[in-house]
Amino acid sequence: MIDQQPAVSMENISIEFPGVKALDGVNFRMFPGEVHSLLGENGAGKSTLIKALTGVYRIDSGVITLAGDEVSFHSTAEAQAAGVSTVYQEVNLLTNLTVAENIMLGREPRRFGLIDWRATRARAAELLTKLHLDIDPNSRLGSHSLAVQQLVAIARATGVHARVLILDEPTSSLDADEVQELFRIIRELKDDGVAILFVSHFLDQVYEISDRLTVLRNGKLVGEYLTEEILRIELVQKMIGKELTVLEDLERKTRLQNLDETELTPYVRAIGLGRKGSIEPLDLDVYEGEVVGLAGLLGSGRTELARILSGVDRADVGTLEVEGKAKRIRTPRQSIRDRIIYSSENRREEGILDELTVRDNIALALQADRGWFRPIPKKRQDELAESYIHALNIRPANPDALLKNLSGGNQQKVLLARWLAIAPRLLILDEPTRGIDVGAKAEIQKLVSNLAENGMSVVYISAELEEVLRLSHRIAVMRDRRMVADIENDDLTTDNLLAIIADGATTEAVA
Amino acid sequence: MNVNKIMANRLFWPVVMLLVLLIINLLAFPGFFSVQIRDGHLFGSLIDILRNGSPTLMIAVGMTLVIATRGIDLSVGAVCAISGAVACSIILGSSDPASPATVTVAVVVSLLISLVLGLWNGFLVAVVGIQPIIATLILMTAGRGVAMLITEGQILTVNSPPFKAIGSGFFLGLPISVLIAAAIFVFALVLTRRTALGLMIESVGINPEASRLAGVRARGLLIAVYVFTALCAAIAGLVLTSNQTAADANNTGLFIELDAILAVVIGGTSLAGGRYSLLGTLIGALVIQTLVTTVYTVGIPPIATMVFKAAVVTVVCLLQSPRTTELIESARRRNARRRGKAVTA
Fold it and tell me: The ABC transporter domain covers which part of the protein (chain A) (predicted)?
């Protein structure tokens, strides 16, 4: 395979952003018919390398060759025309257009110079069928879940006759079956001789699908390895450097006190809380210092429940009690008053402010809570930014950096800092570790369990059951928009939990 | 501060443009920079630029904040016409047009009416959720009709010295209209940058939903911004009407919304919302007014004025475009690297 001409070869690539050296003399190559994984922590330069290859960023130095020819793309369109297609980490589609329009955008079949809509839909339907995706090509993309949107993005990328297909965190919003579907498609494409670049934080998936690995760290190349020749532990060491200590297994913390729940009032109690078309009425108590995990499949109502608890969406039945008092919470602003915070799974749309600095992003919620007329003094803002940059290990450690220049994981940390700055009593974290590398993931998990130990209540939503099991004192399981179980996490295993999620064991039976 | 840092500043090109225009004027008319004191007032071409540009600046200040929230206000010209019409009809209808009390009442009433107009715009945008360009288009079209009803289709000429002073009077040697514009500018600057209002406005402009989840009251903020802009427009309308000593429903403040938007854009605030620069807007307004003056001093025929103006604006916008910035940036870096290599070799 080595004697072959590489499909892609990038030599000595450097890119600098204001205040950040994103790539520093990196070499990278891919061969036709192989799946190549790009690995590294947040901010290692994975996304930047991809964007350099696809013409989003211009490289400051270095040479890129495609099947032996030197290329210099000025736009993704040029890269695509040359056979380099990308599916980005955050789905980059137009939610207000139909599925078919999204798949065929920019390359609609034409007749007499006009778009042939019938052929457009037919071609889109064909691509969807290949992916076994049973959705109406005429439906609006925005009406589908993130997972479906992700698959549509892949359908779009495979629609072009791609020689190189780049999948940047394609599985982060997919469930296990959907991942297998995707892998089947990846293998098919690989057999067709396509070079596939696969970026994922899920090491299991990396080992399952890829032939070769390239590891980056802090914008520099660590090395290129054959997947079968490198042990997982070695790989992780190469990714995060020497700081293996952060990876030490978190021991499940015992609760703040041995709660006698009959005597204590929960910090937040939902009684028959529901919303038409969203979730069926349900009960949920969250005590001080308790971590409640919310498990369930995508679309089971996990996120919906979180949004209703935090006033982002309004409940239309039931009551919400905060410290025993019934509250009418209608806006996030009101729930923030009660120190109930919702941190959205959709970081880009509902979290970060990419044009603002790290400092402004951290200060925003606190400032909004104080009111615009009482600005946080500049000095206090600096202290705030500095302390969270330090505490959460945000990179680059520059409060003046614009958020759009940070990697996804660091943006997530800034977002967490924003919420922590207002001292929440109940923090609802929706997929806080999605698309985040091992190191940062462990940091965030550790943070959550420390916060709970200090009396903060946490509702933790994650698609990764192990994570939910490790962190939670109690686990509520959602299924088909109903709560099907609310159980103590004493000796639960992934298998138990999977059984409940799959079969929806009744609350009484388990509790 | 090195050259690169200065060039990277988003106010660099607008300032260069302003200086170039001033130098052209100086070459065409050597006495251009001279400012004299006549009857205790300052006189000169520079003072004229400030005075004639002040209504545009007043509106552009409000427009900057609206644009920062990802909105736009097309109705400002119509609001100018309404406030002028209201003031003139009150003054004409009173028994004593020359008394300061009458003028005060006229000014206060027209400001109150424009406050209502601003609330209307804000209501349509923030509560009903109509896109700003459509929402304010309603008042842009209807507003001149309302002004027409107030003036009953006439051009209302007033003879009231206190009213005339607003547009053409002097205080401490400076034109009153310039002082009013300066006051509005400083007020907006202090209000948004010395409090957290600026941060809130920017965050709503960048991502309204993320701001809402962070507890920002986007709705109230939007309404306030449209009200403020309507008040700015009303004051500009009073200045314009006072200057002409007549309210003309058809022509007062005609196309001033376009000049104001241009001033904001030249000043480097993106129409996509988010980060804004009031200082940039000030420079933008000065560029536009200096441009108009240049047309006269250089002797460009009036029929070519619009084309000339468009050409200059095009150049400024091209220079500020991300594409140009990127090209200059990469050329600069390539140069630096070449120099670096030369040194090491």
Answer: 8-243, 254-505
